[in-house]
Design goal:
Elements (H helix, E strand, L loop, with lengths): L2 E7 L4 H16 L2 E6 H7 L6 E3 L10 E5 L2 H11 L6 E5 L9 E2 L3 H10 L3 E5 L2 E7 L2 E8 L2 E6 L6 E7 L2 E8 L1 E5 L7 H4 L12 E6 L9 E3 L4 E6 L6 E5 L3 E5 L4 E6 L4 E5 L5 H9 L12
Parallel strand pairs: 1-2, 1-4, 2-3, 4-5, 5-6
Antiparallel strand pairs: 7-20, 8-9, 8-19, 10-13, 10-17, 11-12, 11-16, 13-14, 14-15, 16-19, 17-18
Helix pairs in contact: 1-4
Length: 295
């Protein structure tokens, strides 16, 4: 049976395209069928044996999806990998990230581990979101990092009523509210003052953004919780955004429901590092000081 892999690349970076060619050649030499998204082919100059694919079913039946680029490329690859439960490997292009696992300095080793199946797969919790207005659904999507409802007009505050598990929690005058996963706790939610949550923890986060309220602390709830964010009928319109990639305008009176996603994202881990080490590297945390190095 032929083994197959889908390669998703940030073609705007020369380094990405160079390394994508290397990965494709190595996988082909190992007997893999290598798929590449049609819109990326012209920028990659890949061997003719590569298969061009297009559309939402590009990852159907693949053994693994490889994302060559930053977090944006990884999220784009996750959109293809998640529906078919394909394992997803993020390959780092020069900077420490939370989503990438393999580093360019060890690219040959990473491909070798993929070929040999020498990796483990972790499942990351996701979010499902639905927006309704006037009794009809106006948007449905999902997110790996976060779902945000934000003000649509810079000069006006957004009024949001937040329910948790069917009970009213608070009415915020704010710039917006972020609903995040543990994976997304180091992204937008972190910028809004939310806590860092270890990825192994199953929980949902709710973080008000610049809320004009005495109670505006971030919340960590059970993974079974459901958030409902209702745009006040007398406020300005809002914007719904998933992972910073998919957006919809929300009219006053719209209601957004956020809950644990039906499908997780399956992340490939080649040589798993403790999350503490990843956190220290990402934020350059001061673990060395005048007292000497910590052993």
């Amino acid at each position: 049976m032929t083994r197959s892999a889908l390669l998703v690349t940030h073609t705007g970076r020369r380094q990405s395209t160079q390394h994508a060619r290397t990965v494709a050649q190595d996988l082909l030499a190992a007997g893999f069928q290598v798929r590449v998204i049609a819109e990326e082919v012209a920028d990659l100059d890949l061997p003719p044996e590569v298969t061009t694919v297009d559309g939402p079913h590009a990852a159907d039946d693949v053994e693994i999806v490889l994302a060559m680029g930053g977090d944006g490329t990884f999220l784009r690859a996750a959109e293809l990998a998640r529906p078919v439960k394909a394992p997803l490997l993020g390959i780092n292009l020069g900077k420490v990230g939370f989503l990438a696992e393999a580093e360019i300095d060890h690219l040959d080793e990473a491909v070798k581990d993929v070929v040999e199946g020498a990796y483990k797969v972790d499942e990351r919790l996701t979010l499902d979101v639905r927006a309704e207005y006037g009794g009809r659904v106006i948007a449905e999507s999902w997110a790996l990092n976060e779902v945000s409802v934000e003000k649509g007009q810079r000069a006006q505050m957004l009024e949001l009523l937040v329910d948790v598990d069917g009970r009213p929690l608070a009415r915020y005058g704010c710039d917006g509210v972020v609903c995040a996963t543990p994976t997304g706790s180091t992204a937008y939610a972190f910028s809004g003052g939310g806590p860092v949550v270890w990825p192994e923890v199953e929980a949902l986060l709710l973080v008000p953004i610049s809320a004009h309220a005495l109670f505006s602390k971030p919340l960590v709830t059970a993974p079974t919780s459901t958030f409902a964010l209702t745009v006040d009928p007398y406020t300005s319109f809002a914007v719904l955004c998933c992972d910073g990639r998919r957006t919809w305008d929300l009219p006053p009176g719209a209601k957004v429901t956020v809950e644990r996603g039906r499908l997780p994202v399956r992340l490939v881990r080649l040589q798993p590092r403790p999350f503490t080490d990843v956190l220290v590297a990402k934020f350059a945390l001061p673990v060395e000081g005048w007292r000497g190095n910590r052993r």
